[in-house]
Amino acid sequence: MRFASILALIPLALSLGLLANAYDDTVDRREYIEELSTREDYSLLTREILSDLSTRELMDELSDRLDRRGKYTCRVCGTTFSERPSGSSAVCKREKIPHTTFKGPNGKYTCTTCGRSWNTPPKGMEAVCRETIINHQLQ
Question: Is residue 1's pLDDT more than 60?
């Protein structure tokens, strides 16, 4: 047998392989079409169920679901929101953290957090080291 005749068999084998894949594809398409036809039965069944409900019943159910969905309550302060707060409305409280001071050997009072120092113990607004913002903790 010649080498040229073996080369002629390669395209023949490839075409047979493609033909077999095409046959498998037609089977998948038939199954897909059958699946679509059964879906129509479900949509008809859904239409029948919805036709039994009145408009008033549907509106009542939708309003109940909206009422349940739109409530956010803060665990810290107890405030209730209709929608999720953002920006400045998301701030629950501002907590003022005082300086942690100690009297050093030089007689000055120094904060261990920020490093500032005073000759006398800080009082009033001067005693605030920093402010932290605590956001609402929603449930």
Answer: no
Give me 23's structure tokens. 């046959």
- For 63-101, the DSSP string reads HHHHHHHT-EEBTTT--EESS---GGGGEEEEEEEEP-E
- Structural domain boundaries in the chain: 3-52, 72-135
Amino acid at 15: S
User: What is the pTM (predicted TM-score) of this model?
Assistant: 0.35
| pLDDT score at 25 | 59
Residue 28 pLDDT exceeds 80: no
Q: For 70, what's the count of Cα atoms within 13 Å in the CB-facing half-sphere?
A: 8
pLDDT band of 105, cuts 50, 70, 90:
confident
Strand 91-98 to 101-103 pairing: unpaired
